[in-house]
Design brief:
The chain is α+β, with helices and mostly antiparallel strands. It is 25% helix and 25% strand. Bound molecules: 2-acetamido-2-deoxy-beta-D-glucopyranose (2 copies). The site of one 2-acetamido-2-deoxy-beta-D-glucopyranose has 7 residues, from β10.
């Protein structure tokens, strides 16, 4: 691990790796600090307590972006049990695609515009649908599959508080279709492996363009969207060797 890091730095992959290493060492130091006083010595600069969403690295798709704070990019959150993610959906019709947070409950506050949301808790729970308007908030229970879509033609902004400093995100389509294709095909019933490979290759990055109904209303054509967030292939989940599907 240390050797890998040295190689990375040696190659001059530089600032990002170095920043990540600094953050990781701060998190480690905070976790083993004897007292909260000592934590304040580790977070020695007052600005260590400020997170800047303007300069943080976003996750970007064709129809918007999400920017998340967590202990890894904001060590001051370590042991605090909270974090914030902001989302910009659109220009128009942006959709925060179905996902779960394995370690956090979410409370999402909508700054402006209106969104449609859906939530599914575990097997047996009913589907929950809502329209949420500016200055309203919705809770998304821990582990639930949920999504939000901007139903308007102007961009919207949300602020989501999460009950963990390392909430995690599991994007449903990318993760499910990242399983071995034969098992995905079998679990879908009468669907061929080639069909699965074709669907997988087209899964758009988050934030993706939303429903046909919204796109039509706003006069948008669903063109090619980036597909870089698909699950990487290793031997165990490899595409069939004769497959026409492209790997990412
Ligand atoms: C504290 O952080 C600010 C902003 O990152 C930086 O400009 C300043 O130089 C830092 N101060 C010290 C003493 O490291
Ligand atoms: C929400 O606010 C952003 C910027 O603050 C603005 O660009 C956008 O048009 C607003 N959207 C609505 C629906 O008011």
């Amino acid at each position: 691990m240390r050797a890998t890091l040295a190689v990375l730095l040696g190659l001059g992959v530089g600032a990002f790796a170095q920043g990540a290493a600094t953050a990781a060492s701060k998190v480690a130091a905070i976790k083993t600090a004897a007292s909260q006083d000592a934590v304040f010595d580790i977070l020695s600069n007052d600005s260590d307590f400020v997170f800047d969403f303007n300069t943080a690295k976003p996750v970007t798709g064709a129809a918007g972006q999400v920017i998340g704070s967590n202990a890894a990019n904001f060590p001051a959150l370590t042991n605090q049990g909270v974090s914030i993610t902001i989302g910009r959906l659109g220009e128009a019709c942006g959709m925060n695609t179905p996902h779960t947070h394995p370690r956090a409950t979410e409370m999402l506050y909508l700054v402006n515009g209106s969104i449609q949301t859906g939530m599914l808790q575990e097997n047996g729970a009913r589907f929950v649908y809502n329209e949420v308007h500016a200055n309203q908030a919705q809770v998304f229970t821990k582990g639930s599959i949920h999504y939000q879509q901007n139903m308007g033609c102007d961009p919207i902004l949300f602020v989501a508080a999460l009950s963990n400093e390392d909430p995690g995100v599991s994007s449903i389509a990318q993760r499910f279709f990242g399983l071995p294709p034969a098992f995905v095909a079998a679990s879908l019933g009468d669907v061929g492996v080639e069909e699965v490979v074709g669907l997988e290759a087209a899964i758009p990055d988050n934030i993706a363009l939303g429903t046909d109904e919204c796109l039509k209303k706003c006069g948008i054509t669903r063109g090619q969207q980036p597909t870089t967030q698909r699950q990487p292939r290793v031997a165990g989940n490899a595409l069939p060797s004769n497959s026409s599907g492209s790997s990412n």
